[in-house]
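Handout, page 2. Input:
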Amino acid sequence: MADFKRRTFFKLGLTGLALSIVKPSKATELISGTFEGKVDGPIVISTWEHGLAANEGAWEVLNAGGRAIDAVEKGVRVTESDITNRSVGIGGRPDREGHLTLDACIMDEKSKCGAVGYLEGFEHPISIARTIMENTQHVMLVGEGAEDFASTYGFSKVKTPLKEVKDDWKKWKKENKDVFEKPVINHENHDTIGMLAMDKHGNLSGACTTSGWAYKMPGRLGDSPIIGAGLFVDGEVGAACATGLGEAVIRIAGSHTVVELMRQGKSPQEACKMACERIIAKHEDLTGLQVGFLALDKNGNYGGYSVYAGFNFALKTNEKTELVNTGFDRNW
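Output:
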């Protein structure tokens, strides 16, 4: 989606505008306010409109009877390869020094997990994260260590950032050469794709990947590569993922909090709402502080919620392909 359209939809959250954004050729349906439900059989949900294309990738695996872990990896790889996306993958915006650094994590129903942080020069951090999960005793590798690992396991290097993205960065740097102004936290400059799936056997898995906060300080990590913050999966309970201001999510171990609330008997939507309320309670200044959560429990119940209006998620099942507006605590 173009930056203008994404920014406008984010701030207004208007169903009419959203319907104009979703292309009819995608055969999608936007449901206003329908932010929870239940399905039998395979399901995949993911954050934001770019989740529609990612879900199609995941569905190829699920529809063929494949595993949820394979589905979420394949799904978010679609977004990582999208050169028009400025908040995920190789099309993302760089840090203050012009380096595009990527973060990702992945987790299955048995609590196996892998993550990479501050990774530069590779197209698919999610696959590197999975390779860490399956081939090492570690959970997370970062920076040069993660890059050396990726090269050892045969991942090819790519040149980043894109030329047009680098040109934007040069302009930003010139305009902000004397002072680093706090960027507005919205999905024009900070976003992820978080994806949760359940396969036909009832197994849950999740993935999360991002290029992080545009023009962030070098070395900054958000919630996306952190198990328990940007993503958490417990096969006995459910799964959750987060999007928005990573620092706020980290402060409450957001996705883990959502899953634990479901363990206590809350529905996915209720758990997401309570996690947002906890974030609100922990911050005196909520100016521009957007966070959204998605959750899916072991019985196929799903839901989402956000601090501010405008958060939506892509849903795909045997019966539905939808872009769904979540509930929210407040308007902009």
